[in-house]
């Protein structure tokens, strides 16, 4: 009896257009589920651990998010969930959160996502009788800058926590120390913007020591800044023990490390954005792990030109043509089905009201620029995604800020929402992809949406995150 062909192979067999996409790998290499194809995550301080710890991590995430947990790998770093009530009751806990929310001209919060994401960890601490000293940055102030004060965050924080949050006018000094001393069990003190001090970003030990002197132990829940070795993310860990991960940081790492290191297969990665140069590390890293790689955004024109195609006035990084060629060769050698768009939406200028038309990727006329992927590409991408069990997405398919050129990006968001409902693990890896799923209104159904842009990218590239490395290990990790 002839064995039926896997739908992914069937799809790939219809996609063999040598200039625009690589032919699929043989069945054995494309659909294998290897036991050893797990990237090294020891440098990040994570490893597969015993089943009991895995269950503990999964139950913690379910209690916070209320969603099924898939593709989770447990952490080798100590978590706030590992601390008992006895560890926390009456203790002063320095919590570094990422409350860097957008404010309008009247200092009103326009998106409270990051505040809401910080709540589970804070609530856990106050419910266990801890005294929470909350620290964050906001914006990029140069010294004390009133418009970057954290004061506008107090009402929303208090509302979400169900208690009145006290606000300090500084983050160190005698007045702050008095407020800390008067803090009751279960109370929360919000320190002023830690970046009002230049010593924060310079990670000066004396400044870190002053921050640490306020507390008994440390919790880092600021994934968005975990890739920075700042005083409040890395420096304080030298003076406070234990130093542990908060629930949000834990969840980010469980998904971005766990699901990517040991995904349910087939595993697809969607990478977009304007430039190849900004995504080189991500693409190279994902080529080691994924079965299907879909490319979109402005970077595709560098790949087209590298294959000898005319790209009109589209964005091209001339110094990355050889790199694009090498990435295509690497995908083929690795048995990864790399799909480039076969048609594009082109415009006569870079503007929301530009004249536009759809052309094959091989027929972009002079004077026109590509600003989105076309309908045939959307159909092909959707079919490829329909075969998957795990998908990670980083970067838009086009200039989605302009409605006319947002169709491709929005189509990907809708497809991932559909797949989420079918049990596929869908991970939105930070940045513009998050804005896209929010715009389409499907954010809530995704398996995981990362709160960190730069941190997400660096983690996907396999880089160490100083704010994570500095935390206490839960179990010894063999070197």
Keywords:
Rossmann fold; elongated; 6-stranded parallel beta sheet; 13% strand; 34% helix; 18 helices; 479 residues; alpha/beta; disordered N terminus; single chain
Written account of the structure:
Strand 14, helix 16 (432-440) and strand 15 form a beta-alpha-beta unit. Helix 3 (51-65) crosses helix 10, helix 5 packs across helix 6 (154-161) and helix 15 crosses helix 16 (432-440). The termini are far apart. This protein folds into two domains: 7-38 and 262-460, Rossmann fold (3-Layer(aba) Sandwich), CATH 3.40.50.1260; 80-245, 3-Layer(aba) Sandwich (Rossmann fold), CATH 3.40.50. It is of the alpha/beta class. It has helices spanning 7-13, 27-30, 51-65, 85-88, 113-127, 154-161, 174-181, 198-202, 205-212, 247-261, 280-287, 300-306, 321-334, 375-385, 407-421, 432-440, 454-460, 466-469; strands at 92-96, 131-135, 166-167, 188-190, 217-220, 243-245, 267-271, 292-295, 337-339, 343-347, 356-360, 369-373, 390-394, 425-428, 448-449. The protein is built from 18 helices and 15 strands. The protein has a six-stranded parallel β-sheet. A six-stranded parallel β-sheet has the order 9-8-7-13-14-15, sandwiched between helices. Residues 1-75 have low confidence and may be disordered.
Radius of gyration (Å): 24 Å
By CATH reckoning, the class of the largest domain would read Alpha Beta
Helix content, binned percent: 25-40%
SS strand fraction? 5-15%
Amino- and carboxy-terminal Cα gap: 49 Å
Q: How many DSSP E strands?
A: 15
CATH architecture level-2 label of the largest domain: 3-Layer(aba) Sandwich
